[in-house]
Amino acid sequence: MDQHQLKRQVAQAALEFVHEGEVLGVGTGSTVDLFIEALAGSGLRVLGAVSSSERSSRQLMAAGIPVLDTAAVQRIGTYIDGADEIDPRGHMIKGGGAALTREKIVADLAERFVCIADASKCVDVLGRFPLPVEVIPMAAPQLIRRFAALGGVARIREACVTDNGQQILDVRGLAITDPLAMENEVSAWPGVVTVGIFARHKARVALIGAPEGVRRLDFPQQEA
Ligand code: 5RP
Q: What's the gap in Å between 129 CA and the centre of ligand 1?
């Protein structure tokens, strides 16, 4: 099975978390594209979806799934989204598709984050994938220096303007051994809109696509 087939497999498996008549949170990326396709073909009727990007909104609307504004939704049961990396405790790196800010906003609305990913995304320690950070352009030079002081090499992602009109820094060379501490630290730097570490909003469940089938991982929300 190639990576696309593994993604299709977990996208299909995620339908188990869709309840008719509920509002669903929907993320962004190629795995989520396949999930929206599976949802559209499933006959399941959700009340609507809160979407984390213009890209997913367009796909949802094309599939006849109503896209709801956050003004109309106070709480979501389940948020389904992919990840660039996920560690053994459910912490993730996200933002490869530049949608990290809205992804964190929707994750924050949701009771439960269900991560759908192929097995290549599983790592022991986050940081092999360059960490995406959405930033206000004016702050980019000083943020690049701050990451350098932590041992990271940050570069502005070329030809990329986010749905929020900002830039993305991709930071290489960080070993993120304490994701919660790093998320808290970087989030506090002036000019950072969102850091792509999802530790405060980590996965509750991960569906991992592997050649032998879909593996389900459950993560406790409270850590010792
Ligand atoms: C977008 C994301 C995606 O979830 C992440 O990049 C995974 O994408 P894909 O499903 O295409 O592998 O965080 O901002």
A: 12
Q: Is the pTM of this model over 0.70?
A: yes
Q: How far is CA 45 from the centre of its chain?
A: 24
Beta carbon of 194 within 6 Å of any ligand 1 atom = no
- Domain 131-196: CATH superfamily is ACT domain (3.30.70.260)
Whose CA is closest to atom 1 on ligand 1?
97
Q: How does pLDDT run across 5-21, given as a tens digit for each residue?
A: 999 999 999 999 999 99
Query: Going by CATH, does the domain composed of 3-123+200-218 fall within 3.90.1150.10?
Result: no
Q: Which residues pair with 17 in a beta bridge?
A: none
The Cα–Cα gap between 99 and 132 comes to: 10
Q: Which residues pair with 92 in a beta bridge?
A: 86, 198
pLDDT tens digit sequence for 149-159: 999 999 999 99
Condensed to tens digits (0 to 9), the pLDDT of residues 30-63 reads 999 999 999 999 999 999 999 999 999 999 999 9
Q: Is 94 a pocket residue for ligand 1 (Cβ < 6 Å)?
A: yes
